[in-house]
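[Structure tokenization] protein backbone as discrete codes
[Encoding] learned vocabulary of local backbone shapes
[Protein] chain in single-letter code, fold in tokens
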Amino acid sequence: MATVRELRRKPIGSLTVEDMRLLIRQNVGLTYVLPVAVEALQVDPLAEGDMYEGDLLAAVLTRSAEVWSEYPELRRDIRLVVSRLADVPPALAREVEAFLAL
């Protein structure tokens, strides 16, 4: 929680992939962080924080249906990102399927 508290004070433009992954997983600042994360994923769909290739995408994909109902334009953008993935890494397959089923 201390890390999240520190990240809340960091300027949005200076957040790293790992910073965004942590904040998104905790549902902190989604109004501000999700759009920046989606932009990063449009450039590199498998952007990697400290965990594994595609961990930012996994964090984004696993937000609740309620979150996606609040941000339909971001949901559309992420659907496009996922549709462009030539090969979905096995670690992401379940998250991609669940997201597309929303």
Remarks:
- The radius of gyration is 13 Å.
- DSSP finds seven helices and no strands in the chain.
- The helical segments are 2-8, 17-25, 30-43, 55-61, 65-70, 72-83, 90-100.
